[in-house]
Amino acid sequence: MTLLTDPQGFRSAAAALTAVLLRKYGTGQWDTVEDAVQDAFVAAARTWPVSGAPTVPLAWLTRVAHRRYLDRLRAGRRLVADDGQADQVASPEPDDTANETPLGDDQLRLLFMCCHPALSADSRVALTLKCVAQLSVPEIARLLRAEESAVAQRLVRAKRTLRDARASFVVPSAAEVPIRLDDVLTVCYALFAEGHLATGGDLLVRGDLCQEALRLVTILTQWPETAQPHTHALLALLCFTAARLPARADGDDVVSLREQDRSRWDARLIARGVRALDASASGAQFTRYHAEAEIAAAHSLSRSWTDTPWAVIVAAYDRLLTIAPSPMARLSRLVALAECGEVAQALDALEADATMFAHWPEWHAVHGTLRARAGEYHRAVDAFNAALALPASVPVRRYWTRQREAALAAGARG
């Protein structure tokens, strides 16, 4: 398998190339850098199948990307010179101060720059998903539940802001790191979330994105300035969740947590999650990552669905909703509440959110699940139909279709 056929390898290499060129030439030519990186991969796709992949593929790509960058820069200068505007073309501004970094990882340098304080929170997330995770604009739009045009404009504005701020390609000082760490962790969380449950397409799980998020957070726990309790808590959450990935799908079909073969869960990742959760307890602050890690631990350490401590999970969701309220946390809490035997209470709370979350397919799917639990099969079928009318990945749609068919069959029997 080469960088051209391995999604994670391609993603890491593309981010590394982007980082190398931005470090050398500065942020003033960001679009030219991205075009040059794309040119390098196009050249590889044409050359490697014929001549074979080079011994060191990243070195080959780096050389080609540098040449393509300079070619594009010269071509741009010639075009504006023909218009009598040559003085308006910015020259590359090498940033030689970023040759060394305590993290020793180009993608993390890029990650911190994408989370620059001059950017808005939304722009930081979008830019990082584009440049570090190498997601496409449609993928980012699905993940952020935004219009593609809005995401594209956000990216343009973010790059312009960094250029105008003359942002340098360096890891922030130890004093600045805590201020920007929250944004970095938010992006890593979003990256893992897209990998854990793809928001569109034919795949349920995108393991390459999960692995990349896990790798980045692991590195953050190894550097003293970023090895904060909430960093360890996020690592614990990712480990517990990633440990269950092997059992989440049967071919292309979703396997619910209730039905999963727990012998397929990764015991080493669960043990690693326990160690990270212990490390996260060293601070006084209790964050959303602590609460979510507690929930993930309760699931991962339970021998079976019936052994799951649902009351503990509901309490953890209550803490999470106090710290970081979100629609998905509200929905998940109601599922846990129903497992405690409070189906009617869960349905009442769900109905209270109907207007606010009616455009979320997950809301309708949970509605269908709870209506079926209550024996209201016809209403469950209507809810699953509403979920299926909204965008979702192909495996998830198949799962909801099976649930709808089960409700139909149960209604016919009743």
TrEMBL record:
InterPro entries: DUF6596, RNA_pol_sigma-70_dom, RNA_pol_sigma70_r2, RNA_pol_sigma70_r4_t2, RNA_pol_sigma_r2, RNA_pol_sigma_r3/r4-like, TPR-like_helical_dom_sf, WH-like_DNA-bd_sf. It comes from the Bacteria. Residues 21-78 form the RNA polymerase sigma-70 region domain. Residues 111-162 form the RNA polymerase sigma factor 70 region 4 type domain. This is RNA polymerase subunit sigma-24. Residues 180-280 form the DUF6596 domain. One of its GO terms (molecular function) is DNA binding. Coiled coil: none annotated. Signal peptide: none annotated. One of its GO terms (biological process) is DNA-templated transcription initiation.
